[in-house]
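Hello,

Our lab assistant flagged a job as stuck in the queue for most of the afternoon. It eventually completed. Since we weren't sure the result was trustworthy after the delay, we are filing this so someone can double-check. Below is the sequence as submitted and the structure that was eventually returned. Let us know if re-running is recommended.
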Amino acid sequence: MSPLSEEQTQRLEAFKNCFVEQPIVTQIFADFDRLRFNHQLGGSQQCMLVTGDTGVGKTELTRHYLKRVVQTQNGGYAHKPVLLSRISSNASLESTLIELHKDLGQAFAARRQGKSKEQSLTESLVRLLFKCRTELIILDEFHELLEFQSNAARAVIANRLKFISEKAGIPIVLVGMPWAAKIAEEPQWGRRLINRRAIPYFKLSAEPKHYLQFLMGLATRMPFEIPPKLEERHTAYALFAACRGRISVLKEILYEAAKLPLMERANTLTVEHLAQTFRMWWPDVANPFELGVDEIQASEALEYSYYDFEAPKGTNPIIETTFTQLISISQLLSKSPTLKAPRKT
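-- returned structure --
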C-alpha cells in the first residue's frame, strides 16, 4: 500500500512532470514560431540546431512546445503542424524515415518498382507531410544518427534531410548532444543552420539569477500548501553543489525529497528533508545541506561532453563532461558579471 494518498501522489507526479520555462527556452520557442511562420511564406526554408549536454532539458523542451500546438483530424489524416520524432539509438537513415511515417500516423507502403527503399520512403514522406500540413519537423536525439557513421554515410544523411526540407518546403530543427553540430560541417547544412542555440547548464559564474528564478519556479509547483524557499542563499547554494547546474539532477533531488514531507503530512519542504535525501544517495560525500553557507563548495561545467569522431575502433568515443574543481560559492559568484558575492567587511 502506498504511504501517500491518491491526491498526494497526483500532486507529486504533477511536480515531476512540471515545466519551468527559462529565458533560453523562451527564445527557442520564439525561434520555432518564427520558422513555422516562414514556412507559410514559402520559398527556401531556414533550419535550426539546438544542442545541449545530458540533463539540460532538450527533450522536455520539445515535448512542451508540442503541447502548445493544436492537432486535428482532416480527411483521414492528422493535421500535424509540428512533427516531433525521436531518433532511436544506433538508428539508420532508413529506420528514421520509417519512424517519421509512424509519427505522422501512417505506415509506409511498399516501394515502387525501380526505386530504392530509401528513395521510396523519401517521396512517400514528402507526400505525407503535405497531407498532414506539417509546418515544422523536430528531430530529437539527432546526434544518434551521426554516431558510428563514416563521413560518406553522414553526407548521405545530410543530403536526404536537405532534400526533404526543400521538396516539402518545411524547416527542420535538429536537437541533440553537442556533437550534433557535426552536421554543420556538411556544406549544404552549414548555410541552412542560421539559427543555432546551445542550452547550457546553470552556472553561478554566469547568469546566476536564471538559476535562482528557476528555483522559484520549481518551488511554486511543488506539492505543498506553502512553497519552500528554495531561492534562499543556503538552500540555493546547497542545491547547486548537489546538482552542479544540471536540471535533471536538480529536479530528481527535489522530487525524491518531496516524498518525505508528504509522508509526514508536513506543509512544506525543509533543508532537513533535502539533507536526508542527499545522505541517502551520497553517504560518503560532504553533505552541503548540513554545512554553513561559507563552508559549501561546488563545481560547475568546464567543458561539455563531446564525441571523438576519429576515435580508434573499439574505444569509447564519448568524452564525458568535465567540471571545475570544488571551490567556495563566493569564488564562483566572484566570476559572475551579474551577481557578485558580497564582500566581507
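-- support follow-up --
The delay was a queue issue, not a problem with the job. The result is valid. Confidence is low (pLDDT under 50) at residues 339-345. The chain is about 45% helix and 15% strand.
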